[in-house]
Design a protein that fits this description.
Elements (H helix, E strand, L loop, with lengths): L18 E12 L2 E12 L3 E5 L6 H8 L7 E6 L2 E5 L8 H8 L2 E4 L11 H11 L5 H14 L15 H13 L5 E5 L7 H16 L3 E5 L3 H7 L2 E6 L2 E6 L1 H4 L6 H8 L3
Parallel strand pairs: 3-8, 3-9, 6-7, 7-8
Antiparallel strand pairs: 1-2, 1-4, 4-5, 9-10
The structure holds adenosine-5'-diphosphate and magnesium ion.
């Protein structure tokens, strides 16, 4: 996984210190259930933010608002140089601007969502081929480089059914990277894995962090969060309860809700 010649993960990355993600006054309800209530946060270029919180606190909805898989009711979402305001008087983005905006983010889910009828290599080539119209040879070279980066160069010709969960998830990461996103979003990427396969996926995420990829990671791997995060954001009931460096939020939480949540992991 090291010593590869692949270009850095974020060729279009802004210099460190510039905001890559900005969320302001973000609101989302499903029916009369307010799932996100006035969320504000910012992720600078190269930063890694880990989102923690109990089930149902709104973590997945927040990640989905960052690529507009979920359309916010109000507030502002910016990723890279691109963004939208939502709420009264705002027009919803049209399909083309939505598609362009979504290309700013690569998302990795708990379920791997690989195309079962395509090899690992074809899965990674698919986005560049169909969305970006990248020529085959170029898309294949990129895909092979990315598979090497996630330690799977020798599995390129395998179909997903012949890969372990950890391998599938590493292919899913390579596939997301193939679109050269500005930021990567991980939603419990290791929660469906057998325990012995978790480490190989976390190692790839850790490597991306070391290369300067901007990331928002939802995880219940607290030790990993402490290692990888520049900042930890703890959510409950659709609000940010507490945020700061891991040494503060994980090791010395100020809020009772954070302490209570973390006590389940000891
Ligand atoms: P988390 O990821 O922190 O577990 P979610 O963002 O998935 O939380 O969900 C927050 C709340 O929003 C939950 O109560 C969930 O049932 C609800 N919810 C999420 N998506 C939808 C949806 N599409 N329709 C209705 N309710 C939803
Ligand atoms: Mg979730």
């Amino acid at each position: 996984m090291s010593g590869s010649t692949v270009p850095p993960a974020t060729p279009r990355a802004a210099p460190p210190g510039q905001p890559k993600i900005e969320v302001a006054a973000l609101r989302k309800s499903f029916g009369d259930h307010a799932v996100l209530r006035d969320i504000n946060f910012r992720v600078d270029a190269g930063q890694v933010v880990v989102l923690l919180g109990p089930s149902g606190s709104g973590k997945s909805t927040l990640l989905r608002c960052l690529n507009l898989l979920v359309v916010p009711d109000g507030g502002r979402v910016r990723v890279g140089g691109d963004g939208f305001d939502f709420g009264a008087g705002q027009r919803l983005p049209d399909r083309r601007s939505l598609a362009r905006f979504r290309a700013n983010t690569g998302m990795v889910f708990q379920q791997f969502n690989l195309f079962p009828h395509m090899t690992a290599l074809e899965n990674v080539m698919e986005g560049p081929r169909t969305v970006r119209r990248t020529p085959r040879a170029e898309a294949e070279a990129l895909a092979r480089d990315l598979l090497r980066r996630v330690g799977l160069e020798d599995r390129a010709a395998e179909y997903p059914s012949r890969l372990s969960g950890g391998q599938k998830q590493r292919v899913a990461i390579a596939r997301a990277l193939a679109m050269r996103p500005e930021v990567m979003l991980f939603d419990e990427a290791t929660s469906a894995l057998d325990p012995e396969l978790v480490g190989e996926v976390l190692a790839v995420i850790q490597q991306l962090a070391a290369e300067g990829m901007t990331m928002v990671i939802v995880t219940h791997e607290i030790a990993f969060a402490r290692d990888v995060a520049d900042r930890v954001v703890f959510m409950r009931d659709g609000v940010v309860v507490e945020e700061g460096p891991p040494a503060q939020v994980i090791d010395a939480p100020q809020q009772a809700a954070t302490r209570s949540f973390l006590s389940h992991f000891h």
